[in-house]
């Protein structure tokens, strides 16, 4: 952390890495790529999504419970879509 360039870049790279791989210590592993149903975009409407893993610890601290990140594909190109955070 004393190296000038690393000091500025490391926190951002760590945050992105934690988001993609999950930053949870001592948690049961979430199976990445699992298909799931989430209530999205509002209550009563269920959407199929792909669970991508754990979410940021900061988000879980604010939510007060364990959360996961879910990718919701959109039409007409299913490789684009939305990334949402929902309670596990």
How would you explain this protein's 3D organization?
This protein has helices spanning 4-21, 57-63; strands at residues 34-39, 46-54, 67-73, 81-87. The protein starts with a helix and ends with a strand. The protein has 2 helices and 4 strands. Strand 3 (67-73) and strand 4 form a beta hairpin. By secondary structure, the protein is α+β, with helices and mostly antiparallel strands. It has a 4-stranded antiparallel β-sheet with strand order 1-2-3-4.
The shape is: elongated
Poorly predicted tracts of residues: none
Give the percentage of residues in beta strands: 25-35%
Order of helices and strands: HEEHEE
For the termini, the CA-CA separation is 34 Å
In round numbers, the mean pLDDT is 80
Q: What is the gyration radius calculated from CA atoms? A: 15 Å
Strand order of the largest sheet: 1-2-3-4
What is the count of helical runs? 2
**Main sheet specs:** 4 strands, antiparallel
Query: How many strand units?
Result: 4
- Assign the structural class, choosing from mainly alpha, mainly beta, alpha/beta, alpha+beta, or little secondary structure: alpha+beta
């Amino acid at each position: 952390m004393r190296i000038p360039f690393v000091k500025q870049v490391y926190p951002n790279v760590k945050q992105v890495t934690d988001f993609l791989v999950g930053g949870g210590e001592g948690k049961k592993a979430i199976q990445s790529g699992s298909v799931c149903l989430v209530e999205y975009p509002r209550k009563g409407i269920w959407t199929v999504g792909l669970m991508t893993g754990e979410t940021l610890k900061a988000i879980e601290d604010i939510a007060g419970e364990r959360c996961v990140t879910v990718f919701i594909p959109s039409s007409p190109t299913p490789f684009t879509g939305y990334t949402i955070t929902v309670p596990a």
